[in-house]
Amino acid sequence: MKHFEANFDGLVGPTHNYAGLSFGNVASLNNAAATSSPKDAAKQGLQKAKALAELGLVQGMLAPQERPDLHTLRRIGFTGTDAAILNKAAKEAPALLRACCSASSMWTANAATVSPSADTHDGKLHFTPANLVDKLHRSIEPTTTGNILQATFNDSRFFKHHQHLPEHASFGDEGAANHTRLCSEYGHAGVELFVYGQEATNPQAPKPQKFPARQTLEASQAVARLHQLDDEGTVYIQQNPDVIDQGVFHNDVIAVGNQNVLFYHEQAFLNTQEKLAEIQRKFGDSEVHFIEVPTSKVAIQDAVKSYLFNTQVVTLPSGEMAIIAPTNCQENPAVFAYLNELVTLGTPIKQVLYFDVKQSMQNGGGPACLRLRVAMNQDEVAAVNQHTLMNDALFARLNQWVDKHYRDRLTVADLADPQLVIESRTALDELTQIMKLGSVYQFQR
Ligand SMILES: N=C(N)NCCC[C@H](NC(=O)CCC(=O)O)C(=O)O
């Protein structure tokens, strides 16, 4: 049986904008109130997804969410027509309106945690949508995320969908951004690494002082229980609180793994040596390539600016690995020099491919934020909703759809425009037909 690691990229939604919503995420704060281009953002994402499909990887797309989120605005007491609600919210609670308009579901690394069937006791592939409780604008994602995941992975013989964890800070869960899986082959049982920022039930444990730790140990443990993982196939690692305070708001901003490679910054974790030894022991006989990037070569600030670690490390059909990096890495001299050296070091990583995803980067989302990894065997791939899988036809169709419905420019002031609701719903309604998703949105129910 053949095995693959598929990437499901988030299709950027029609309201992509810069609202400065993510305290602790340097790019989001620095670009607050900048003018965005939803059209360019969506096309940059589609280009990357198409390129990965052309490299021979299994590539899917996940639909964006309905924004502005009028249902949440109604839930918090705004009444009247859609236009009246937007008008009132813009005047009386502009920060809440901005939170209800973010296209943040595009970062599907935060959509869910996924455990492949090779790791789980019941032999099913498990999904738990992330509750994203640390940020208001993201906490309104998980229910629709669950609907979209179920419409995409819609065969209960293979896929098991859980409800998101309880919506409380003790269970702060940011999904796959704080989870990576090492394995010898995608279809063999692997070691799942859960990286958390703090322990909710132990106030004495280390935690960041300035910026929030979005993921708790308790959330990671709950997901591992739900997914029926073995203790021997699971490692919990605490992220270094000092780097969270320097803008590393998710572990995937400082570390990434693929098969037998863990690529990370020397300051990424606490108790690094002990944890690497545990990973190696649980991995088994063959060797894990621990590629540690020292501060002397790449400072934390350079890693945060360039997103060196928010790269996708992928295995090509040839068996060699490539790094999918944002063009921002080419523009940072220290990082570019490091990447040029990396491919000569004799590790499995042999090439670097650069993609312009600047529209997303300006909100703190690099190539790896834009994708949810799902390791699957060929029967599972066949059971996926085939209309979500990238190919020439879907690429052309989605580009046409973007051209038809998306604005070239969007400012925060435009978010109160009632026309944007109509445009967004018309676009998403058509998208659910293109991707054969059924009625996943509240406005369709
Ligand atoms: N690292 C991963 N996997 N994901 C990146 C998520 C970026 C996202 N940015 C935002 O939500 C910014 C929205 C704004 O400010 O308009 C966040 O902070 O949650």
Automatic annotation (TrEMBL):
Keywords: Arginine metabolism, Hydrolase. It catalyses: N(2)-succinyl-L-arginine + 2 H2O + 2 H(+) = N(2)-succinyl-L-ornithine + 2 NH4(+) + CO2. InterPro entries: AstB_sf, SuccinylArg_d-Hdrlase_AstB. Homodimer. HAMAP family: AstB. The keyword Hydrolase applies. Pathway: Amino-acid degradation; L-arginine degradation via AST pathway; L-glutamate and succinate from L-arginine: step 2/5. The keyword Nucleus does not apply. It comes from the Bacteria. Belongs to the succinylarginine dihydrolase family. Catalyzes the hydrolysis of N(2)-succinylarginine into N(2)-succinylornithine, ammonia and CO(2). Substrate binds at residues 19-28, 110, 137-138, 214, 252, 363. This is N-succinylarginine dihydrolase. The active site is at 174, 250, 369 (nucleophile). Its EC number is 3.5.3.23. Gene3D superfamilies: Succinylarginine dihydrolase. One of its GO terms (molecular function) is N-succinylarginine dihydrolase activity.
